[in-house]
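Reposting from the mailing list since nobody answered there.

I have sequence plus structure tokens for a pair of proteins and want to know whether others read the tokens the same way I do. The first protein:
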Amino acid sequence: MLTRATRAVLLALFLFTTAANLASRELRDGMGRLVNVPDQPHRIICLAPNLTETVYALGLGNDVVGITNYTDYPPQARLKPKVGGPDNPSVETIISLHPDLIIAGGGINQEHVVEQLDHLGIPVFVVHPLGLEGILESINQIGQATNREPAAQELVKRLEAREARVAARVRGLPRPKVFVVIWYQPVITVGKGAFVTDVITAAGGRSVTADIPQAWPQVSLERVPELAPDKLLLVRNAGEHSGPSLETLKAAGGWSSLNAVRDGHVIYIDDRLFHASPVIFDAMEDLARKLHPNAFRPQ
């Protein structure tokens, strides 16, 4: 926590550097908070990778002055100054970048960090996307906060059109039963509250854990064969945060008895599947092609 003296110094610095930008609008963010945001923000900090992706997709990459760790998309965003992890950003670093708008994520960024930045007088606009529809809504909300509403509406239309094209390709086809392996010891997967479940449905599959209320539930390994998945969905990245591979599961106790493991019925998707931003629609199209390859072959 910042001391009172440090907070006073930082607040004075912030007010001094932003005094010229007085015009603002009062908006309600994704958490129902009323936030005064500048009419034309030009120094934006994004407190989660998916928020950076959305801001860049709206054509505001040049206005981003700070990002968090683990930001990979788009590649040029990696060159921006980092303020720390989404769960523990450095308030001192944030202040030093003189932001006129901070975009935060509900359920990602801790409430006390948002409150601390609020107390310093920095506009913090929070979005909390739930499901694919929630991701589209958050794009419009960020467009509103950054005064890029027409660009946001156009982006949402393009993403909705992509989803509709996938739906048309997979309509009427059998839906393979999919089990998502986020981790294997303990077994962590996706439930009803996860947008990944929506992506599987949109791609023409059926998540066998869609009825579990939690977004990221832990289940027993004994439960997995009972769910009888046709396919295991594994996440493969180039970096250190990659999920388990088929070889890992074959060598792990218990997994080798699962038909999908024994027969090699796995699908690899990259980590865009877990990003609540426009890039998740790339993952949706990739997954649809892998679930229904014949539906996407040239006519």
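The second protein, same order (residues first, tokens after):
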Amino acid sequence: MLCEQRERESMKVLVISGGIPEEKSPLAGIFAFDQARALMEEGIEVIYFVVDLRSFRHKRKWGIKHFKKDGIQCGQISIPLGGLPLSVRCKAGARALETLFRSFPGFSPDIIHAHFHDVGYMAAHLAERFKIPLVITEHSSVLSTQEIKRAEKRYVIEAYRKADRVVAVSSALAANIKKHTGSDCSIVPNIVDTSLFQFSEERPRNECNIVTVGNLLPIKNQEFLLDAFQLFHKKYPHSHLSIVGDGVLRAQLQDRANFLGLEGDVSFLGQLSRQEISEVFQRCHLFAFTSVSETFGVACIEALASGLPVVTTDCGGPKDFIDDKNGIIVKGDTCNDFADALCRAYENYERYNRKEISGTIRTAFSPVEIAAQLTELYSLTIDKSKYLEKRK
């Protein structure tokens, strides 16, 4: 055990993402940075790189900058390439990443961990040049679609081919990656912030507060939820729906709520911080999730960690952690089907052991647990890479 701890503490990991959480964009790179922070807290030396290729519209200082965030040494290179073809962004990003890497003389990572296939393609160039093992974690919903654009698929396959290991955040995403690219995946899920999302007995009585969280985009399917909630509300008029998130469909969804006669029964709360979302959860009874396709569903595990049973569409990622003990996966695809599931969850609300739901999720998706899974995966990848190098 002591040897394992020493090995872990001496490991150097370079994490690479396309973003980092900031005040203006709190969700940028959030899953990658969560993992980087968890690794650091377990004694691993981590440097976090950002390859920011967003367009001119995102105002920031171009070029390279070094800084620290939450105790992690970070490097960022910003080049405004947002509107250019993927081929240009990937190749220019690969060169930019090498330039950023060379601005950290003396840093020799044992492994590179890139997040998303486009960043993985850029990182593959770096890994190949400096002979460093490469892990790519995929989060992109692009891989959950029926078809991938030919231009993008080329870079996905090339990135995975050059990686020593490909990781998916759910078994559903792993199956889609296998179907589209032929690559086998390890599975390491996302992290739940156990310092924020916790069980509480406090809930308003004699009412039913339902909450959903997600960007207001077609893939999140909130109009479907409004239609289902109207049916639920007819049966339980003391109910209320809170919609957390913002996006291009906000005005359309507000109009839909008004058309359905739900003006006072639906609240649009906008984009909230994780702290604010955790506070909303403490006032709610059920979490509703109507996504068309989901690679993981981090909002679902945050709700479960807060003790909220989850009612979700059969959208992929949540199938790994939703069962009869903590919620319902709705197999039907009509508003009536979803409304009926909400009714069943509410009518059986007292049967859910909400404290147990919270505890199970907080253990399975804690920073400590995910850091342990990543560390084991890194060790296996490094050992395999050394073995293959000796065989050459």
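Reply #1 (J.P.):
I read it the same way you do. The longest helix spans residues 367-391.
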